[in-house]
Amino acid sequence: MLKEINRDQQSLSKKSKPATVADKQIITDLADTLQHHSQTTVGMAANMIGEFKRIIIVQLGMIAVPMINPVILRKKGPYQTQEGCLSLEGERPTQRFEDITVQYLDRNFHPQQSDFSDFTAQIIQHEIDHCNGIII
């Protein structure tokens, strides 16, 4: 179901709680909302739709990949960049890493571990920051 975008910085600064199987509907709602905003965004975190669970979704080409309870295990190659956010106006400076390794649960709550680089790594870092209550 398409959800409204949360733009309240006070609530966005709250840390999200671990997701459970009971939170599966949030994945569908995130996917629907991401698809609706596909012209302006490539990733979302659950708190952006008012759900404070550790769930993100990232557009990888034609596929939107949900990541449940994601944790960055490894970061390499720090760099400075500017980012925008659907929940905020304008762009802000931030530090990201070129290469990351992420451990997460997939849509079926099966454990996964993957390496990501470049823009995909940047998106994932941005969305995990949301889960941690960090706003760029």
TrEMBL record:
**Which of UniProt's keywords are assigned here?**
Hydrolase
- EC no.? 3.5.1.88
One Gene Ontology molecular-function label: peptide deformylase activity
Kind of enzyme, top EC level? Answer: hydrolase
One short Pfam name that applies is: Pep_deformylase
Database matches in InterPro entries? Peptide_deformylase, Peptide_deformylase_sf
Q: Identify the PANTHER family for this entry.
A: PEPTIDE DEFORMYLASE (PTHR10458)
- UniProt similarity note: Belongs to the polypeptide deformylase family.
In Swiss-Prot or TrEMBL terms, this protein is called: Peptide deformylase
Name the species this protein comes from: Paucilactobacillus nenjiangensis
